[in-house]
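Readers outside the structure-tokenisation community will struggle with the description of the input data as it stands. I therefore recommend that a typical entry be quoted early in the introduction. An entry of this sort, consisting of the sequence and the corresponding backbone structure tokens, reads as follows:
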Amino acid sequence: MRLVAKAEKWKLAEVFTISRGSRTETELVTVTLYDGTFEGRGECMANPRYNETQESVLACIKKVDIDDQIDRQKLQTLLPPCAARNAIDCALWDLEAKRAGKRVMELFGISKSATLITAFTISADTPDKMATAARRNSARPLLKLKMSGDGDVDRVKAVRYGAPNARLIVDANEAWTEDMVEPLAKQLQALGVEMIEQPLPKGADGALANIPHIIPFCADESCHTSQDLERLTELYDIINIKLDKAGGLTEALRLKKNAKAKGFKIMVGCMISTSLAMAPAYVVAHGAEYVDIDGPLLLAEDRMHGLEFVGSSVSPPSEFLWG
């Protein structure tokens, strides 16, 4: 078995802004596993929020002893949940599928003609600019709005005006304070917002247990793996599963199963990545209440054989891409 890891930078279609800052490109790492006959691929994004850089991800991958006995179960014991583990885990899924001559989709009963509706993300900006973005995307059924704190109600009002028929969810990315949550939730409820993602910073979100859930709260930064679920039970109504946080498709599927058993609704999200990262997320997203795998739509261009998007409808990945 041979592993090749590669750092890549992909330009975004336009500046992307959340509460923690702006970017014009995304830093990715791809992994390719070769067994002499077949190859499997995976992709991850180095996320500064979790103290990851391309260099640290590559260094983490280099530590893994890749031999002919490596499999997904063994991998879980070699690395903690992180972007590096995700890329290797997804490459192993791809490799196993090719060895077996079966699509990963088949294992989960996903039809070749199945489609999902993904949210489309509008990054944080002035109300006028967000209204313009909303008008451009007013035909999309579900819009996800990045929030940044002060002025968020005006931002949502502007988007609601620009896209009066779209369903709206908002993502604060830990930008709010405890005293902001209930007043903002009341105002956003009146504007038809149906979910608030990560309103408070991880570690400060215990306060959500004492705040009315006027709108359901979704855990993102606060939820990485199944081990987080017990603490989140009284705080959140929904969890956002991202493969980079979970450390791969293997743990993401376990997290989904355990979260549903505890009564959480499911959102499947993504980092800003190409279709190679979205393909395994597509597997987890089936049956989720919210799907947010629009990463390729935010790029200036996607990878060859990328997912097919028709508006916000996305089809299963091609066998030439993954799985």
The first strand starts at residue 2 and ends at 18. The two ends are 18 Å apart (CA to CA). The chain has a mean pLDDT of 96.
